Amino acid sequence: MGTPSAEPGLSTLAARLSELADPAGCWTISSDEVIRLIGADPVRFWREMNGLRHRICFGEAIDRFTQDTVGDLVTVLEHVVGDEAEEAMRRAGLFMPHGPGVELTEQLLHAAHRFSAVHGIIADELDAMVRHAGSVRAAIGIYLGEHADVEGLIDSCAQSFRAMHGLPGIGASTAARYLRRLFARHVLDRRGLFTLLEDRLRVAAAQAGHVDPEERAGREREGWEREGPARGDREGARAGGAGRGGRAGAPAAPAARQAWALRALGFAGGAVPDADALRGRYRQLMMRHHPDVDPSGLERCKDVNVAYALLIAEVCSDL
């Protein structure tokens, strides 16, 4: 199939998919209609798709493609009309390639960091949650569920990403779906996303006299108990004011967590690199180990996301 006819066919397909999409960006299109819209030879199309049966959801693709299998559609189109298929679908806001997806994920981590830094901890509510749950860790999970609006952050980042890249309206739905898929696959999780706020909540709980036994033992080993809550107060004051009901600064991560995070990102030595170095390494590792690229990379990606969130909180106080 010649290059001159590829772009018009892809544009026609993209326009039809946008037309089919509901307000949430969901669409379904038959494989036969895809063939007609791109002007492909049916015999070649089915031959190419059969050759890709181990890379795509072949049984589903025989009948139709949906927004959830758009990656399979792009794979087939690349073999039928050429490499420009991915870019055409990206420009139409219908597909999130891996590189932009890593950028979007990083944007969500930074948005979560900003929220974590400015959220005014409701000390009385946290205290009640600890007493009800019986542990600080469980109470923090409840608190994050009540106050950390993951869906709101996802929608905000998706809209921002769409505007930044000049995508049509459906691009925001595609971006939001990409992020939600990361949570569904456990590449991201709520506690890892709000690691800075979790640290602040632990300090607030300690100031109220709540420390889980295992946490107390760990802090005693690190000498944390000798400094006690005053440490959090001093750090909060340096960060712009601490105290109940006000903004508290993020406590320094315990030495063991910092060392783990540095190892997870592949940095030697104890010094935390600057923000640019952290961003560069984060993108490099996510590009290499993302499950869309490396099916065995899920656990590696989870570690990279948590480690990045921990370290970026130490070097960027105003993200």
The strand order across the widest sheet is 1-2
Q: Helical amount among residues, as a percent range? A: 55-70%
Write the H/E string, N to C: HEHHHEHHHHHHHHHHHHHHH
Report the biggest beta sheet as strand number plus sense, adding barrel if it closes. Answer: 2 strands, antiparallel
Number of strand segments: 2
The residue ranges in which pLDDT falls below 50 over 5 or more consecutive positions are 1-5, 224-253
Q: Which structural class best describes the helix and strand composition? A: mainly alpha
What is the mean predicted local confidence, pLDDT?
A: 85
The percent range for strand residues is under 5%
Q: What's the number of helices?
A: 19
End-to-end distance, in Å?
48 Å
| Radius of gyration, in angstroms, nearest whole number | 24 Å
Q: Please give the domain count.
A: 2
Silhouette: elongated
Structure notes:
Helix 7 crosses helix 18 and helix 18 packs antiparallel against helix 19. A two-stranded antiparallel ribbon has the order 1-2. Helices cover 68% and strands 2% of the residues. The chain has 2 domains: 89 residues, no CATH class; 218 residues, no CATH class. It has 319 residues and is mainly α. The protein is built from 19 helices and 2 strands. The termini are far apart. The N terminus is likely disordered.
